[in-house]
Amino acid sequence: MSKQKKNWEQRLSGTPDKLTVAFVESLSLDKRLYKYDIAGSAAHAEMLVEQNLISKSELKEIKKGLSEIRDEMSSGKFKFDKELEDIHMVIEDALIKKIGEPGKKLHTGRSRNDQVSTDIRLWMRDEIELLVKKLTSLEKSLVELAGKHAGDVMPGFTHLQHAQPVVVGSYLLSFVERFERDIVRLNNCSRPVNVSPLGSGALAGSTLRLDRKSTAEKLGFKDISRNSIDAVSDRDFCAEFIFDCALIATHLSQLAEDWIIYSSEEFGFLRLDDSFCTSSSMMPQKRNPDLLELIRSRTGRVYGSLMGILTVLKAQPTGYNRDLQEDKFHIFTASDMIDSSIEAAAAIVSGTTFNTEKLAANLDKGFLDATALAEYLVNKGVPFRQAHGIVGSIVNFCEEQNKGLSELSLDEFKAYSEAVETDVYENLGSEKVARNYITEGAAGQQQTEQRVSYWREQLSER
After folding, report:
1. Who's near 87: CB < 8 A, 6+ residues apart?
2. Strand ranges for 341-422 from DSSP E
3. Is residue 139 within 8 Å of 346, Cβ to Cβ?
4. What is the DSSP letter of 444?
5. What residues are labeled active site?
6. DSSP annotation string for 62-100
């Protein structure tokens, strides 16, 4: 049987130039939507039967044909023809070749404009669920590692300078908090995604008796769109999804940046498993954190997708425009980068060990207990700003004497403040400071143990 002529070709004389065919095709991207297009088509056909727009026998043939096409595509046996432009035309053409006239009725009351929006929403709904599962797996890896190091202390940094002592577990849980916010954002995004545009047609709806709520229910949508003009051109949910991916990429990149630094010879805080490193083609001693570097780098692709989708949307006159075909490039790029990066990060975390001896050796650097000394003075009645100045002077003295704060004698302390008493030594030293944190959410051992228990319980319920 000869290839079906596209509907829009009836309006134009001659045939499209090969350049036009190659330029407008989106099949190379949207063929991954095939199962969603088939699901939407089956639901649409069932609704057409309910409205007596096709017969039950025609529905049976349509569903059988669609099922066969889906199986052929799933098995890799189907041959895609780019001249048919997109997955919608490919499936319709294949269906007509299989069952003849009934296949020509499937597009009744439907446009590729509302069809593609439906497909993307169905795909994105599943993709959000998948990303949430993978983020949860990453969170579990971080929580388990945090549980192993709930009592180990490390330097905490601001401006990449030694700041205050923190428990290793608390540091790891800081990423769990970030990824949890990512999950919340993705779940929030699923709300505008889960709205059916099917039945909006090309722009203005239809004069046919279409039951939009019926197709929405069959496809598991929570609601239907309320304005056909907006429905066919709405890609806000795409921009929101990519923004969510961009923030996930940001958090993954932050983790990667830390661990690239912490695994270096200069720091030596942690060791990455060899299976997630590479070596050098020239320098045999190298253990390069390439996976982390690529996670960090691929963040740029996701950012590019966000700027890309916003640029597409900002110039859209009202209604559907072919510019929107580019949406799939950006959402697929963002999701693919995030999907693989989350998976890689979870594996890296599970295989990482912290060098507690090296961490302990770094606790004496940078006067990590200086803030605790200032707070000790506050507890003795010294105003904080005054205490801050006193401790700053003491630190200067310690640097000159090449001593740590806990190495000073009581008399040396009293030279700067008479408020200092013998109990000062109970508040000095990084490990003592970490044990003395009392505020909720602090980076101490007690708070970390509580949060590890909390996260284990929360994540086990998902």
Report:
1. 27, 30, 31, 33, 34, 37, 119
2. 353-354
3. no
4. S
5. 159, 280
6. HHHHHHHHHHHHHHT-PPP-GGG-SHHHHHHHHHHHHH-
Query: What gap in Å lies between CA 196 and CA 141, rounded to an integer?
Result: 36
How many C-beta atoms surround the C-beta of residue 22 within 10 A?
11
Query: Greatest CA span in the chain, whole angstroms?
Result: 101
pTM over 0.85: yes
Helix ranges, 76-220 (H): 87-99, 101-104, 112-148, 168-193, 212-218
Cβ–Cβ under 8 Å, residues 339 and 131:
yes
SS3 23: helix
- CA-closest candidate to residue 128, choices 237, 287, 264: 237
Name the E strands within 287-429: 353-354
Domains of the chain in start order, with CATH, are: 7-110 (1.10.275.10), 113-204+221-361 (1.20.200.10)
Contacts of 225 (CB under 8 A, 6+ apart): 195, 196, 197, 200, 231, 234
Name the token pair of 63.
């569903």
CA dihedral 210, 211, 214, 219 (to 10 degrees): 40
The three-state secondary structure class of 30 is helix
Burial category of 89 from C-beta neighbours within 10 Å (exposed 0-12, middle 13-18, buried 19 and up): buried
* Number of Cβ within a 10 Å radius of residue 231: 25
Q: Check residue 416 and report its DSSP letter.
A: T
DSSP string, 208-242: S---HHHHHHHTT-SEE-S-HHHHHH--HHHHHHH
pLDDT along the chain (462 residues), means of 10: 52 73 94 98 98 98 98 98 95 98 98 98 98 98 98 97 98 98 98 98 98 98 98 98 98 98 96 93 91 98 98 96 97 98 98 97 96 98 98 98 97 98 98 97 97 98 88
d(CA 37, CA 34): 5
Q: Which residues of 135-163 are buried (b: 16+ CB within 10 A; e: fewer)?
A: bbbbbbbbbbbbbebbbbbbbbeeeeebb
